[in-house]
Write a structure and sequence with these properties.
The chain has 177 residues and is mainly alpha-helical. 68% of the residues lie in helices and 0% in strands. It is globular, with a radius of gyration of 17 Å.
């Protein structure tokens, strides 16, 4: 895969991941640029899963940027699927409900441990397979499965404690597999 094709194929996934991790668009743009500079300068001949490899570079870059932040506060950005185009325009009520629910989800998501949060981000938000997520995290497959499972259970437990979400409990899904 050529340099331009690599960039065009994965630029949005890398940017959204960085934006979600860093919560500032300027930081996400900087991180995204660094990721692709590193990727384009690296030898990609032995890489089996390009997306997982790029997401690992993005994760490392985001971690480096978060360590360098002076305030030390780590905040998450709303799930990037809020920016995905929708076939039909939602009603005002649907838009409000979606915004409210995503805000509640963001608050719950912040309470997860970073390693669990990162596994969920890569698997669900970046849509990596379990094997690709394991490679991106440089962790065994079983560990990744365990983190995802623990994360889903923790989210479900937190959602049950949240009175605003208890009304929507029927809509809550713990897993997609």
């Amino acid at each position: 895969m050529g340099d331009k094709e690599l960039f065009e194929t994965y630029k949005e996934d890398v940017y959204h991941y960085c934006l979600y991790m860093l919560r500032r668009s300027a930081d996400a743009e900087d991180a995204c640029q660094e990721v692709f500079v590193k990727a384009l300068l690296a030898d990609r001949s032995g890489i089996d899963y390009l997306k997982a490899w790029l997401m690992r570079i993005a994760a490392n870059e985001c971690h480096s940027m978060m360590r360098r932040r002076t305030n030390g506060e780590i905040k998450e950005k709303r799930a990037f699927w809020m920016n995905k185009p929708i076939g039909m325009s939602p009603s005002v009520e649907q838009t409000y409900e979606r915004t409210e629910t995503s805000g509640e989800f963001e608050e719950l998501f912040k309470e997860l441990k970073p390693k669990i949060r990162e596994a969920l981000l890569l698997y669900y938000m970046a849509e990596l397979s379990l094997a690709e997520t394991a490679e991106a995290l440089e962790a065994p497959l079983g560990t990744v499965k365990s983190r995802i499972s623990r994360g889903l259970k923790a989210l479900k437990k937190l959602a049950k404690k949240n009175p605003a979400l208890s009304e929507k409990e029927g809509d809550f899904r713990a897993s997609n597999y």
